[in-house]
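Q: Hi! First time asking for a complex rather than a single chain. Here are the components, and I think there are four in total. Is that enough to go on?
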Amino acid sequence: MCLYFTSAALARKVEKLATESWKKVNLSPSHAYLLMTVLDEPGIQPSTLSSQLHLQPSTITRLIEKLEEKKLMVRTTEGKLTNVYPTPKAKELYPKMKECLNHFYQKYSALLGKEESNRLVMDIGKIADKL
Amino acid sequence: MCLYFTSAALARKVEKLATESWKKVNLSPSHAYLLMTVLDEPGIQPSTLSSQLHLQPSTITRLIEKLEEKKLMVRTTEGKLTNVYPTPKAKELYPKMKECLNHFYQKYSALLGKEESNRLVMDIGKIADKL
DNA sequence: AAATTATACTTGTATATACAAGTATAATTC
DNA sequence: GAATTATACTTGTATATACAAGTATAATTT
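A: Yes, that's all I need. Here is the structure of the assembled complex.
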């Protein structure tokens, strides 16, 4: 067994679970997490999003574009800096998003056990940082 | 912290490490693992590859196409069944591929520690199966 | 044995992410 | 203060993977 396929397979399965959980608000998981982050830190900059979400700046740009189209966030640019803000529509959606997040957590912790899944998240996080 | 981003981030980082390790034979990790599997089990069928590599049948088809273009494997079809065989060129490449595999393992176990990384692979594998 | 269903694979198309190059602004160096 | 370098973001393009629909063959049902 090899780390390459196990980690890729895990990511794909988790992605599927997450996709299901976020369907209620009609967002893909990465859009959803990006939006949650912006809701938690209005005015956050793409570069910060990039490092927090472990995604490349170009990917962040693409995700924001989509969310702007959906009228869920807006960008303001001054000089070379950009700030991202949630719209009222996004703020309305917040409670439902919390529910989705919770649904996702319930789902995977039911499959793996609360303790095991918490440990797993911690372990994977630490390891991803080391690589 | 959330399982979604940790698992995705881990997978992306592992992917990068693996890509580097497989560069010597000019193959992407998924092509490389598919070819290794075919070298280990000549005549293996796409459906078996699909379940062993945790990839969809359509993805397997695409990977095989690419490897056929590179003259590293051939398909023979009889009825609805297809068998996949490595070419002599692939067999020649085998020792180098083993080296890449080893390089990859050395790389990540150096970063994580042999024990920890072995445990990790086991854990992740088990968990991916549960989901 | 004809009709239906199941299996195995492929093809059309969509999505996510990344890399590399491009643009614009700010900071540093000389 | 002009020239260079660094930073922040965007755009062009490529790759991996998936889903859904399509095709061809085999198995099952009736």
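A: The mean pLDDT of chain A is 92. Let me know if you'd like any chain examined more closely.
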